[in-house]
Design brief:
The complex is a heterodimer of chains A (about 200) and B (about 575). Chain A has about 200 residues and is mainly α. Chain A has 9 helices and no strands. Classes of the chains: A mainly alpha (about 200), B alpha/beta (about 575).
């Protein structure tokens, strides 16, 4: 495709500053967690969906940014659970592995997370498993949810699992193309569409 | 202070699947109808293709009275109360849950209406499970057929007929009862994977067919065909291809000039006069109190709320709640056993990223009494349904079939390869009412106004668990025949909990001692009160309830029109 619409150009331009800031290590604004809590969350999501031979993970998707933003809105009721859970997790890392979580090796971080997942970690209010499952679910939302909400940056989550993107119309030809593995990812958010406009068309 | 409004012919409480249908024939006949709806209008501009909002954040954001009235539940009267849900399975809006439901629009099979007599005839009366209060319906499928037909054509249902006037068409469901004519639209399209599953069923000697859907397979009545975009499950339709009552019968009823829609109306009680007749309905809008007098009240607010409103509406004539002098309100409750599913992993992509839950292949060979139960120790069965429905966050949460942990690099490698390779079957099993499964008012939990919420006390019994195990065997056999390399089965079922398929509580039947409403849907003890919805159904069959609830609603409305003078409260009153 050589044709690039004005809208696509605008979209590309909009993504650049975030991507550049991210790649140079400049942190985007943190809205609801403290910087320390955000460092810890960044380290956790990086182990839940790691950056590895299979490509970008939760770090590149900016799943922690999604969680931080959502903790001020749709997930606001979970904010206290994040504050107490993150604190408990770091204390558990210090007591069981003698270092803050963020300074542990990936192997030791994984070992801490396994303990938290299994409910074997001490110092949590209630079960550490509940905290683990909450963070894992929200990391999925931040990696595979619509980019409008601040995660799944550059559509890395959808590319990972082969989701070809939000469409408002899927024709029989599109479906056959999906089945033939030739349907290309369109990298579109729900909110890049006037999603009611297909009413006059036919699939 | 309560504002007393002008008298009207009929008040319908709830403009959803059932109330939204009933309004149309009533208004067409010239009766003045007031439709009280707790929600608001939603239009296709509200229906974004957004999984996070629709499936994880309890869409819609509009007013949801129901979310403040979520029933409590427990398995038995002596078991502890389960954790209460945060989202009601039904939604408040004009059109109700028909806006975001799966839109599977099945007719019941003939056996479902005559379960008791047919079981006795074929296997003997001892085969009715102990403790079950099941009865035959007061009429057979033939009585409801004309109304199924009306609804299918009026709202628009796509599908493949299997039995037109006794002629079996092998492309459709050979077990369905005789219908007068085919569906108004052909079935929704199939994907390569659905074709593959259908082929595997045929090789097993079974009879696969496309399921019926209240979704346009082509443009119908000036509404668009389905776009198969994949956000139908708990999402409204962005092109109005889903045949919600909000885009079909409700606007048509309004066009007659005889339906007045009142949105954000929070109904609190039904009022009874000194003579024991229904006088009208009390409701609130933003805290302001209104009384809407009516000659007939039709209660159409979903099973839990129908029962709750009756039990809350106490009067001199009905001290235990409206129409409950014989203690039948809340009894004979059951929810469709649709848990105990089966999931499969395939060594190839299934191409399921787009599509909708109503697009798929059904097998009815193991439903109802479609097979010989002579050597078996249960009655009834289940419909096997394989469909196309997948979105990214849901896919990430997929079962890993014991082949990978839940996170980390090994999980990531698994999900990268398998995100589009699993399928989960939806198996709806016929479920019976039992003596100790019931609805009542919770003694402690209330809504923000201080009214008790509904309490569910119900569990699946031995018969339902045996059907589960049997149908899981069949489903595994089917998946394996199509090439599945791993299978996971869900538990057979215990506590019923709160359901999207909730039946009974105001059961329909000729015997006033065991049923709340008569064969027309009007209360035995309060003749100008009608009840609409699956709360009047005495059996579930193995198929989704909505079309049956809609056909019954139309039939009740039709009876009211034809017998207005006998049913309505006299206007001179």
């Amino acid at each position: 495709m050589t044709f690039i619409s004005r809208r696509d150009l605008l979209k590309a331009a909009a993504i650049v500053p975030i991507a550049r800031g991210f790649q140079s290590g400049v942190r985007p604004p943190v809205e609801n967690l403290t910087a320390t809590e955000m460092d810890l969350l960044d380290a956790i999501v990086a182990r839940l969906i790691p950056t590895d031979a299979n490509g970008p993970g939760a770090t590149e998707a900016q799943a922690s940014r999604y969680i931080d933003r959502a903790l001020g809105s749709a997930l606001a009721t979970s904010l206290p659970a994040y504050r107490t859970g993150l604190l408990a997790l770091d204390r558990f890392a210090r007591s069981s592995r003698s270092a803050p979580f963020t300074q542990l090796s990936p192997t030791d971080q994984d070992a801490v997370l396994v303990d938290v997942e299994r409910g074997a970690a001490t110092g949590f209010t209630g079960s550490s498993t509940a905290f683990f499952n909450m963070v894992l679910n929200h990391t999925h939302q931040g990696t595979f949810g619509d980019p409008y909400y601040g995660g799944n940056a550059s559509f890395v989550g959808w590319d990972l699992i082969g989701y070809p993107g939000v469409r408002t119309m899927v024709t029989t030809a599109d479906q056959k193309s999906l089945e033939a593995k030739t349907l290309k990812a369109n990298h579109k958010s729900a909110y890049e569409y006037d999603f009611t406009k297909d009413a006059e068309r036919q699939p | 202070m309560t504002t007393r409004l002008k008298d009207t012919d009929v008040v319908i409480v709830g403009l959803g699947a059932a109330g939204g249908v009933a309004a149309f024939p009533l208004a067409q006949a010239g009766l003045d109808v007031v439709g009280l709806e707790a929600g608001t209008w939603l239009t296709r501009r509200d229906f974004a293709p957004d999984e996070l909002r629709n499936n994880f954040r309890g869409w819609p954001q509009a007013i949801q009275k129901a979310n403040h009235e979520i029933p409590t539940s427990r398995a038995t009267a002596s078991s502890p109360t389960a954790a209460r849900g945060t989202i009601h399975p039904m939604q408040n809006a004009v059109g109700g849950t028909t806006l975001h439901y799966w839109a599977q629009s099945w007719r019941l099979n003939p056996w479902d209406f005559k379960l008791v007599s047919e079981t006795k005839r074929r296997y003997g009366g001892a085969r009715i499970p102990n403790g079950s209060t099941v009865e035959d319906w007061p009429f057979g499928l033939d009585e409801l057929e004309p109304y199924y037909d009306k609804v299918e054509y009026e709202i628009g249902v796509s599908g493949q007929a299997g039995n037109v006037n006794g002629r079996i068409d092998p492309r459709g469901n050979r077990f369905e009862g005789s219908r007068k004519r085919a569906y108004p639209m052909p079935p929704l399209r199939w994907t390569e994977f659905i074709e593959k599953m259908a082929g595997a069923a045929r090789e097993l000697g079974w009879n696969p067919f496309p399921g019926p859907a209240a979704v346009n397979s082509r443009s119908y009545q000036n509404r668009s065909a389905c776009m198969y975009h994949g956000f139908c499950n708990r999402g409204g339709c962005h092109v109005d291809a889903k045949s919600s009552t909000a885009v079909t019968t409700i606007p048509r009823a309004q066009a007659t000039g005889h339906l007045k829609v009142v949105t954000r109306a929070h109904v609190t009680t039904i009022e009874v006069d000194g003579g024991g007749r229904i006088a009208g309905v009390n409701y609130l809008v933003d805290g302001a109190e209104y009384f809407q007098p009516a000659k007939v009240v039709l209660l159409a607010s979903y099973t839990y709320e129908n029962v709750r409103l009756l039990l809350l509406s106490k009067s001199k004539a009905f001290p235990k709640g409206l129409a409950n002098n014989r203690g039948q309100v809340g009894r004979h409750y059951f929810s469709h056993h649709m848990g105990a599913g089966v999931s499969a992993l395939f060594p190839f992509n299934t191409g399921s990223w787009y599509g909708l839950p109503a697009q798929g292949v059904a097998v009815d060979n193991w439903a109802d009494d479609n097979f010989d139960h002579g050597g078996l120790d249960f009655i009834g069965g289940g419909n096997l349904w394989v469909y196309s429905d997948r979105r990214p966050i849901g896919a990430a949460g997929m079962n890993t079939f014991g082949r990978a942990p839940a996170w980390g690099s090994a999980w990531k490698a698994f999900i990268k390869e398998n995100a589009d390779r699993s399928n989960s079957a939806y198996i709806q099993k016929s479920t019976l009412p039992y003596e100790d499964n019931y609805l009542d008012l919770d003694p402690e939990v209330t809504d923000p106004l201080g009214y008790p919420v509904c309490r569910v006390t119900a569990e699946y019994k031995e018969n339902e668990r045996k059907i589960s195990a049997f149908t899981q065997d069949k489903m595994e056999q089917w998946y394996r025949a199509a090439g599945a390399i791993a299978i996971q089965r869900a538990p057979l079922g215990g506590a019923m909990g709160v359901s999207t398929h909730a039946y009974g509580g105001t059961r329909m039947g000729d015997n006033a001692d065991t049923n709340v409403v008569d064969r027309w849907g009007f209360a035995h003890d309060a003749p100008n009160l009608g009840v609409l919805g699956a709360s009047v159904m005495g059996t579930s069959g193995a198929h989704n309830p909505t079309l049956t609830a809609q056909a019954l609603a139309w039939r009740t409305a039709d009876h009211l029109v034809k017998n207005w003078k006998n049913v309505a409260r006299p206007s001179s009153y």
